[in-house]
Design goal:
The chain is an alpha/beta fold. 46% of the residues lie in helices and 23% in strands. Pfam families: HTH_1 (PF00126), LysR_substrate (PF03466).
């Protein structure tokens, strides 16, 4: 049983496609099919159901999946253990929430590159659901989310920090001078919000719906940092993580509104898959985030 064959099996299982696995691995589709046929012959059982263009694991394939991941991880650990001590290298794939990316990433990347200059970083922004799906299919090594507390038995929680979400208005806005603001007052304001499906946007919508109210923003945008700048320019109110707006609040260009009926706290969390070997480059990234 060859490691490259096991690696091919894992790619097909994750991508649900022989052709996509072949492209990602740089093999011909016939070579991939031959490797799977050889593996199935060695194990004396079919590993995949092939119905039309759909590829799914059989029950035996699903059972073998856990062992295959463990075999490959053990081989990587053995290889690393036999190497002489050297600087951390390789690739690190991280998916992040947009607001986490825009606020924490610049400083984090600077420190990480200084610590691990030979590591190639592959970064992408995604929704929390997309990140967890990618983590489960081994398309990424780490997922850095901003959401309600996520408890996933398949994932290891490496970092868990509370983050407040707040309603902000341009400095000098009429509501900024009030001791408290009601949801009814918010409903009558112009808003710029993140897209539906983002954790804290959904939390705001749920607060409003509980009172039979709704906010219909005139602009929806995926970038929380850009929304902050637009609010500073007087274009409306928004609902954003405190860490996004803290500099503008300190500078006096934004005002935080006190809305007792809408107090929302999310968790900034960093995950990796429990079956994933914790590589040196992953350990270095986790350590920096924990600091």
């Amino acid at each position: 049983m060859e490691l490259r064959t096991i690696n091919t099996f894992l790619h097909i299982a994750e991508l649900h496609s022989f052709s996509r696995a072949a492209r990602e691995l740089g093999y011909s589709q016939s070579a991939v099919s031959a490797q799977v046929a050889q593996l199935e012959a060695e194990l004396e059982t079919p590993l995949f159901d092939r119905v039309g263009k759909t590829v799914r694991l059989t029950d035996a394939g699903q059972t073998f999946l856990t062992y295959a991941r463990s075999l490959l991880a053990t081989a990587e650990q053995a290889k690393a253990a036999l190497q002489p001590a050297r600087q951390v290298s390789g690739t690190l794939r991280v998916a992040l929430a947009d607001s986490v990316c825009s606020t924490f990433l610049p400083d984090l990347l600077q420190r990480y590159h200084a610590l691990c200059p030979q590591v190639e970083l592959v970064l992408r922004t995604a929704t929390d659901d997309e990140m967890l799906q990618m983590l489960g299919s081994n398309q990424i090594d780490l997922a850095y989310t901003l959401d309600k507390p996520l408890l996933q038995p398949s994932f290891v929680l490496a970092v868990d920090e509370p983050e407040s979400i707040c309603v902000v208005a341009p400095a000098g806005h009429p509501l900024a001078g009030q001791a408290e603001v009601t949801l009814q007052e918010l409903a009558g304001q112009e808003f710029l919000l993140t897209e539906r499906g983002m954790s804290y946007r959904d939390a705001l919508d749920q607060c409003m719906a509980a009172q039979g109210l709704a906010i219909k923003p005139f602009l929806e945008l995926g970038s929380a940092s850009l929304l902050c700048q637009m609010v500073e320019h007087g274009m409306g109110l928004s609902f954003l993580p405190e860490y996004i707006v803290q500099n503008a609040l300190a500078a006096g260009t934004l005002a935080r509104l006190n809305v007792p009926a809408c107090r929302v706290e999310m968790r900034r969390q960093l995950f990796y898959h429990k079956d994933k070997w914790l590589t040196p480059q992953m350990k270095a990234f986790i350590t920096l985030v924990q600091k």
